[in-house]
Each structure stands twice: as structure tokens, then as C-alpha cells.
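Render Outer membrane protein beta-barrel domain-containing protein in 3D.
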Amino acid sequence: MKPKIIIFSIFLTVCFQAFSQQLVIEIGKSITNFDYKNSQGNELDNLQSTNQSYMYVGYRTNIFKDFIFASLGTNYSTYGSIGSDNVLNNYFEWETSYLGLNVGLDFRVFKIKKVNFYVKSTFSSEFIIQGTQQLNNTVYDLVGADDFDQTNYFFRVGTFVDYSISKQMTLFFQYMGGKSKQLRSSVSNIDQEKLRLVSHNFGFGLFINLKS
């Protein structure tokens, strides 16, 4: 993890310990795919998205009045893709699971009675905890593989709406979409493989007030 990320995370942690207002619990479904180019720069045209899942637990607090909020938490996300190569008649499938540290900012853009509308951006630093690749009838373990067993940086943007169901709890529904930073390849020449993870997350959760 880069020093700037560590410093920022420590700063947010100190702020949350002093001013934390809400516990955040979220679960949802993801539509994920791999953005892959081979060493010649050619894409796999027939890669197909797969349905995956994610979970998030963290803290959220207002940093400017009641319409700008910061968050810090941990996310568990799964990514996958399937495809085939009609030229060589190959079938391939990926299934991966990542654990990450997530920081974010959200802005309330307008409010209608008890319903609030927000825009949101997040940055996460994730590492693989489980993963497999299937090539035809052979399955490979991706933990330790150069292209996957490395820190994965993910930037997402999206929107959510929340509705206050009591003084202690607020229900929200959220969409976040994004693409990871290019994963490093073990190939050292100029023309090398390129791989990014793509996800569209649809979820719901609760804000639980920790301070009245």
C-alpha cells in the first residue's frame, strides 16, 4: 500500500474515532467482466460478464455540515468472466475473490422529505484471497499468479438514495461502477498483456446512527 494511502487512512480513522456518526452495512450483486488485451494488443471479443456479489462494512461521518460525508471501511468483492476462443476452440472462465480497504466521499445533491439523493466516489485497495482460472478441462489456482496476486486499485463512481426509517436507522439503495487500475504483467517487453477488472455494483444497506 502506498504511503499516501496509509496516511489518509490513518487520518480518516482518527476522525471517525472522534466524530463517527454511522455504522454502514451493505450487500449487493455485481455484474463483472475482465478487460483483457494480449501481448499484441488484441482484445478477446467474446468475453462475457458474470453475476457476482460483494459486501461492505464501515463507518460514515459528515465532514461539512450535513451534506458532505466521508467513509472508511472494508469490502469483500468477487469478480469473474467467461469466454471462448473460436479460433483455437478454447473455453475459459475466471472466478476471483478480493478483500480491500475502501475510502469514499458522498455529496447530497437534493432532498425530498425523508428521501435524500447523493452522488458518491470511492477508492479501494484490494488483494486476492481466492481465485481460479479454468482453461477447457484444466483449473489453475490464481493465488500467487503474477497477473492477479498483487494489490488491485479500484476507483468507482455512482449514486444512491436513502430513506430514514427511524431515528437510529436509514435504508439506502446504491449503484457504483468502475474499472481497476491495470494489473501489472510479468512480461517485461514493451508489448505486454493488459488486464483490468470491471464491475457494476447494485446494492442496499443500512446506516446505523452511533450518536444521537
